[in-house]
Amino acid sequence: GGFAVCTGTRPGTVVGGTCADLGRVMGAIPSMTPAKAVGELRARGAMGLDLAFDYGQPAKAGQFVYAHEREVGGGRLLFICNVSRRIEVSFKLSLQGKVTAYDAVSGEVGEVGLDGGRLQVGIPPCGSVCYLVEGSVGGFGDMRGGSGNAGDASVAAGPAAGAAPAAGTAPSAGAKAKRRLRGGKTQGLRINRIHALDGNMLTINECAVEATGLGWADRGVAVTVNERLMRKLGFEASFHRKQDWLFTDGQLKVTYPAKATYSFTAEAGVGPIWVAAEGQGTFTVSLNGTALIKSGFHIDRDIGLYEAGRALKAGVNEIMLAGAFGPTNSFESIYLKGEFNVARVRDGYKLVRREDPTLGDVSRQGYPFYGGYVRYEATADYGGPGSGRAILAIEGFKGTVARVHVNGRLAAVVGWEPYEAEVTEFLAEGPNEVWVDVCSSGQNVFGPHSKSGRQGLVHMGSFYNADDGAFYGYGIGGGLVLITEG
Predict the structure, then answer these.
(1) Which burial class, exposed, middle or buried, applies to 289 when counting CB atoms under 10 A from its CB (0-12, 13-18, 19+)?
(2) CA 145, CA 128: separation in Å to the nearest integer?
(3) What's the pLDDT score for residue 308?
(4) 190-242 pLDDT, tens per residue?
(5) What is the DSSP string of 340-398?
(6) Residue 446 Cα to chain centre, angstroms
(7) How far apart are CA 476 and CA 404, in angstroms?
(8) When you count CB atoms within 10 A of the terminal residue's CB, does the N or C end of the chain come out lower?
């Protein structure tokens, strides 16, 4: 919802060919110059951005800021992200009214205070912030510069790189995080327990597909077999994208009865487990011939979650999806979630009894497909105010991000080197409870799981290769160390 404008070239091709449907969609979007777009957005009551970059920021910092704004319940929802993969951006944002912030890492929501009508913002590489602004949000600020994104408020020019900082300007969060205590006392923490905070996962990327009544069957990587069936049925080449507008009205009305079978093995005593399957609105889901009932969803509402423990058996198990196959109802990878570990066997993967991980790479300890948090629970002794500042160092860190909790309170979120967090204000004299939650990667759940191609670069073709055990490593290899001044 909202108002969109196009200030650049209109996309009109799909997979190298002209697409009339896409042309009609883009044709409905007004086209105008960036300057006219700003005026149009202002006329519609947009808040826009008025920000000043902090001292020491590169002169090109503005080009890395992307912002999106929309009206929500009489207020304005403001999303700002840093598209740079290398630098942190920090600036002061002019706002009016009540401001509520959402932390996408911790999931916490809370009101934030303004200092003279300005909010200090720091966004790490590839990071983002989200604010709900209620009350008097005012109009547009200085519209110089710009992100170049259609329909987005432009960025005001801040102080030039190298200029003297304004009086009272605090150093950026990034600078604070890199201050290490030299010559301080170190205490290796005793780790009491390591455990996953959610059910383990197994992704099954291969299946056998049969088109009932066509005399056609195939086996292999789900998306590849799905592609072959699409071609068999005469659908256009852009079948791997499920948007309705990529197909003609006639194609959308055509469906064929088909079924896909996914196999895995399990040892006795495993469970409970759930099956997570996409396209559950058009396909029935069964395990070993027992129909499964949807009990929720997994991550995305299009991925249905089905309780399957009563149908699980020791040995080979078969999950079947059956129903009307068509341009927007296709077969993809399927997922298992529950209380188990995953072992690699000659013909795939096997579910075995659940065991907690230890120090080291958790993806190699029976959790290769897990995409959630692993918690490290430890105890830290602190001598009180006389011990001075305290920094928690995460030794041998692997993962996407880590949350640090001290005595039940979120103390920091750590995402890049040095993997340290200042925890002084959260410590009490005597023993303290420290939790560090290390997050895995969505790649481990959703793939690709192939070592073919350039690692770290993911595109549509990445998912067509067979699973050969490419996983994103995560965990703590060296332990937790508390460093204090005195």
Answers:
(1) exposed
(2) 20
(3) 93
(4) 999 999 999 999 999 999 999 987 889 999 999 889 888 888 887 654 444 45
(5) -EEEEETTEEEEE------SS-GGGTT-TT--SEEEEEEEEEE--GGG--EEEEEEEEE
(6) 11
(7) 13
(8) N
Helix, coil or strand: residue 143: coil
Q: Which two tokens stand for residue 104?
A: 């996408």
DSSP-assigned beta bridge partners for residue 438? 374, 402
Helices (H) and strands (E) in the chain, counts: 6, 32
Residue where the block lists tokens 């826009």: 48
Task: Check residue 190 and give its pLDDT.
Answer: 93
CA distances from 481 to 342, 361, 392, 474, 477 (A): 31, 18, 6, 18, 12
**Eight-class DSSP state of 56:** T
- Taking the CA atoms of the chain, what radius of gyration do you get in angstroms? 26
Q: What type of residue sits at position 191? A: I
For the question of whether the overall pTM of this predicted structure is more than 0.85, the answer is no
Does position 305 have pLDDT exceeding 70, yes or no? yes
Phi/psi-derived region of residue 118, left when phi > 0, alpha when psi is between -120 and 50, beta in every other case: beta
What is the end-to-end Cα distance of the chain in Å, rounded? 56
Q: What is the pLDDT of residue 280?
A: 56
Q: What is the mean pLDDT of residues 338-365?
A: 94
Q: How far is CA 193 from CA 297, 357, 377, in A?
A: 30, 9, 5
Taking CA atoms, 37 is separated from 7, 24, 148, 209, 263, in Å, by: 8, 21, 11, 50, 54
Question: 208 forms bridges with which residues in the sheet?
Answer: 219, 261
Contacts of 196 (CB under 8 A, 6+ apart): 356, 357, 362, 367, 370, 372, 373, 374, 375
Residue identified by tokens 């200090």 is 120
Torsion, Cα of 461, 463, 464, 467 (10° steps): 140
- Over 391-455, what HEC string results? EEEEEEEECCEEEEEECCEEEEEECCCCCEEECHHHCCCEEEEEEEEEECCHHHHHCCCCCCCCC
Whats the size of the chain, residue-wise?
Answer: 486
- Averaged pLDDT, 297-321: 91
| 345-379 as b/e: b if 16+ CB within 10 A | eeeebbbbebeebebbbbbebbbbbbbbbbbbbbe
Query: Which token pair is 183?
Result: 């010559």
Distances (CA, A) of 184 to 180, 187, 188, 397, 409: 9, 10, 13, 21, 24
Q: Residue 438: which of 471, 479, 476 has the closest Cα?
A: 476
The CB density around residue 9, as the number of other CB atoms within 10 Å, is 6
